[in-house]
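Mods, move this if it's the wrong board.
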Amino acid sequence: MPVILEARDLVKDYPLGEGSVTALRGVSLSVARGEFVAIMGASGSGKSTMLQLLGGLDRPTSGSVIIDGIEVSALDDEQATLTRRQKTGFVFQFFNLIPLLSVAENVGLPFLIAGDALAEHRERVDELLTLVGLSDKAQHKPDQLSAGEQQRVALARALATAPAILLADEPTGNLDYTTGSEILDLLWDSCDRLGQTIVLVTHDARAAAYADRVLVVRDGQLRDDIVLGRRSDHDPAALIRRLASLGL
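Not the wrong board. C-alpha cells:
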C-alpha cells in the first residue's frame, strides 16, 4: 500500500531555562494507507510529542512531516490548520466534547467549523452514529452519556470528514477495562473494515496489540519496529514477551 504518512529525521527541542531539552532525536518512520500503527513507550519517552508533530499540531525543530503528499511541517500556520482539518482526525484521552451541543452536533462539529450547515451532512452524521452504536442518543447532551459513550462520540467526530489519518492519544486512558476494549474494537474495525489509517499512542501493551505494527520509543528515539500483522485475535502475550526482551 502507498505511504500516507512519513516523518524524516524529526528533532524536537523545548526551551528549558537558559538551555533546552530534546524530546525527539532524529526519528524517521512511515505509515502505509490503511495500516494500524501503535507508538508505544513509557511516560516521557517522546511518544506524545511524536504524535503532535505527525498530526501537525506542533512543528519540529528540524526534519519534516508529510501527510498524504503534503509537507505539513513546511506550511504556514493558516495552511497547516487547513491541512490538519482536512487530512487528520484526533481522539484524545479526554473527550473534549462541547457540553451545550447534542451528540449529533458534536459529531458534526468539523462541518460546523468549516461553515457548513449540519443539515448538509445529516446522512454522514447518522452513518457515524450507527457505526459507534449511538443512533438512539443523537439528541442527548454529553453529560447524559457514560464515559465510554462520550469517547464513542469523540471517535465519530474524528471520523466525520473521512480523514487520511486518525491519530489517537491514549484514547482508553480514562476508561475501565471493558469500555476501553469496546473503543479499541471500534478503532480496529474502522481500520480493518473501512480502511481507515490509524496511529495510536499508548503505554498499554493490551491496546498496542490491536495494531498491525508497534513502534517502540525510548529516550526520544525509535528503538524497535515490531510487526504483529493484521489479526482478529488481539492477545498481547507475544508483544509483552518482545517488550520484556527489550527491557521494557
